[in-house]
Amino acid sequence: MSVQRHDWTKEEILAIYNKPMMELLYDAATVHRKNHDPNVVQVSTLLSIKTGGCSEDCGYCPQAARYHTGVKGNDLMSVEEVKQKALQAKAGGSSRVCMGAAWRNVKDGPEFDEVLEMVRGINKLDMEVCCTLGMITENQAKRLAEAGLYAYNHNLDSSEEYYKEVISTRGYQDRLDTIDNVRKTNVTVCSGGIIGMGENIEDRAGMLVALSTLNPQPESTPINALVAVEGTPLEEEKPVEIWEMIRMVATTRIVMPETQVRLSAGRTQMSKEGQAMCFFAGANSIFAGNKLLTTPNPDVDEDMKLFNLLGMNPQKPFTKKVQPQSVEAKDSEYQSLGEKPKWTRPEHKIERNEAAKEKGKELRNA
Ligand code: SF4
Q1: For the whole model, what pTM was predicted?
Q2: pLDDT tens for each residue of 31-53
Q3: Distance (Å, rounded) from C-alpha 176 to C-alpha 157?
Q4: 64 touches ligand 1 (CB under 6 Å)
């Protein structure tokens, strides 16, 4: 097994990213084979349990209430509906369900209690459960862990420097603090980012420095290609070239040898050949289902056809870590603290986010 290094520098990562393509692919595939079965890919289903109406200003996100993107918001899905969807996902070959709620941060109360029930319900289906609910406190992380959560997703999105160009409503340190809170439990960390937001290669390397120097490194790292949605501040960004995606996946694989590298948003823009090259370069996880929260994604059937074509198999659940025990609410050791933590609200403004907000207001009032 390759050893995890936690002292990667930006220069070293840039040198890897910029290698001649054939060398980069060879090196990444070699690391990949030492640490993973190259013919196995984890299939996860992403479920939006609460869509839209978010108070944040993430420049890429159609769920931010301040932009005008036509995304229809909904209330929290019921526990029963979530269980049904998880069963369908399992039947379709998924081993993991990731539940996403468009929240700035988790608030203690009845909605969080329901999410805990959802976690218990999916864990009982013998599937890995992941949540992405925004910022969480240590006590909330412990309650999720106790309910049987397998992974918590909280993306760093980009480098610390470029983060400020995309989001103004919270700081990079908030992200790291939430990851730190998750690390105080046995829940695994899923954290990655997005390319194609106008960042430069140094920013991509900077994000990989931030992720790879976490100790331990995240068990899962999604690499998203921006899906530019009309109405968001990033609506005019050009699609990412497949070669950039391959370079990013390969570099991630080399600096984070044991991590599951996940091909996430932007897969509809990739050809079968492009996806196959990403698998060769070390991607070993995908999101299934024809929607990723609110943006399009290939159909499950298409994915299975691709797997057959490439002779690949979906990963079984709990192959990397044992299934967490799920404690019932009545036996819970951790109670709601009714915390009202003060996450930061940085004071900088991002002009394009402001402009998109104003345009959104006008369109809504028209
Ligand atoms: S990415 Fe998450 S936090 Fe940011 S606006 Fe969208 S739903 Fe809200």
Answers
A1: 0.95
A2: 999 999 999 999 999 999 999 99
A3: 12
A4: yes
